[in-house]
Amino acid sequence: MVDFFQLLFSGLATGSIYALAALGFTLLWQASGTINFAQGEFVMLPAFAMVGFLAWGAPLSVSFVLTCIVSIAVLGWCFKRGLIDPLYRHGMMPIVVATIGLAIAMRSGVRAGYSAEAHPFPALFADKLFKVAGVTVTLADIGTLVIALALVFATQMFITKTVTGRAMQAVAQNTESATVLGIDVPKMVFYTFAINAVLACTAALLVTPVYLAKFDMGESLGTKAFFAAIIGGFNNSRGALLGGLIVGVAENLSAAYISPTYKDAVALVLFMAVILFKPQGLLGKKVERKV
Amino acid sequence: MKKSTLLLIAATIFMLAVPPFLKNYGIYLFTYWLVFILATMGLNLTVGYAGQKSLGHAAFFGIGAYTVAILMKAGISFWIGLPLAMLGCFAIGIAVGFPALRVQAIYLAFATLGFNTAVWLVMRNEEWLTGGTFGINNIARPSLFGFSLEKNLHYYYFVFAVTLIFAYILHRLLSSPWGKAFTALRDNPIRAESLGVRIQSYTLLSFAIGAVYAGVAGALFAPLVGFIEPAPFAVSTSIMMYLMVVVGGPGYFLGPVVGSAVGVLLPEWLRFAQAWYLFVFGTAVVLLMLWLPDGLLSIPDRIRAKKLARVEAQARSDAAAKIGGAA
User: Fold this and answer.
1) A100 CB near a chain B CB, below 8 Å?
2) pTM to 2 decimal places
């Protein structure tokens, strides 16, 4: 039972990182109909940016802030203006393929231009253990969970409580009426891309000390983010959090109790079940078909 | 029509005449290209014509390859393995089509992606059947009417013949009322249904027939490489196949030919860029999409549309000048 709680807790910590990537993923989808197949690479690039700033001698906090700024410019603004805006009116297929191409380019660009090896990353939290009722938890797990949850809730509050956030929601729900109401639609969509970039940077900050900075670290992370977003509900931001935590916990528990070789299969089975029986996701709303 | 027939004859002559002048690796690449043409022709039916977003095509490709490989290891002839692979893919294709009746667009894409991952996990973990990560090696090439296809060039011509046969079948299928029903399903499913197209059956069929093409491609792929393991049938291959269809031009009959050339031959050709070749490839795909969102084969349509627009603009300005002159 003690083992169970230990696994559950570290699963929650990993899951909260998935939730960050998944949240950005669903936000992009809602605001601009973008399925970002490069979402994992959007976490990988900031990780390397931070490694680069650190190598220049900047402290971790400064590197993180600088990386966020660069990411908002590159993964937010450039990505939106250069790729999504021109392809938006052509439907889903070209955007999907373009982001696949982008993912390949980013992955192999880092591999060829920087390094094919895994780079260590400074730990964010001291190596400290706590014993709570016999269950050992690490400070890193607690810290990761707290930071990720705080960020998800902050994003949630921003979207639901502020005027700008509500305008963003309006754009996501009905772009045309939002325009009629005088909302600056391109600006709101850009905010979503900027938020996605910051979420990705934070995910990089939290995940890299464990997984190390490597050119292909985005691959599995991107897939997990997909699964999390679908399980939770694609058109619902809270769903991303739920989905992320479910995927994190499920893979941890199944690796221990079922079989490590089929570890990935459990998230998959969950995901297939959700797709077949509740395709809009656990928390998603149903969208009617139009003729 | 005349022009396209000429083009087809020229392409056939090219495909027949060039390989004898290539080295072994060149012939291998050409065969590899043909195998992917076959597989993406099927995916083009599912995605391009019927509009079902499938990201699990490599699973069928793998099922075809493993069926033939396992049967041949058990001493059963390729010629029994091939139809069995087709039959198996057809049946599983129908089964995979069922989620498509419930979910559409991205949800379907992810459901098929999940199916692909599941198949890949079975290939990797069920060692008694598939050899796990060690794979199955020494897969012999088949012989045709006692004529050995062991040599690379002979095998190439054999694969080319099979591709032509299946391309012909697909062409006939698409120009039949069935083919029209597939495009109706893509363009407006509810309207198609109200006009009496049984969209359920056509959705399932589009998956099943697409899967058969992937199965045949897989069955030809196993003897080509002689050694199969789970990696070539992972989700990344499905994504690449999807990319090939979209880059070539979904819903264009020859789209897969061009798309597979981009996916298979272009990376080889880019090897001069060494470590950077995949980076160049990815960037090229992004730029290509920005330039031609409807795929490479939409170039003629685009030129025609531009010409039409110019003619119309001319007519408009002429008319304006006439009115202006009269006033």
Assistant:
1) yes
2) 0.84
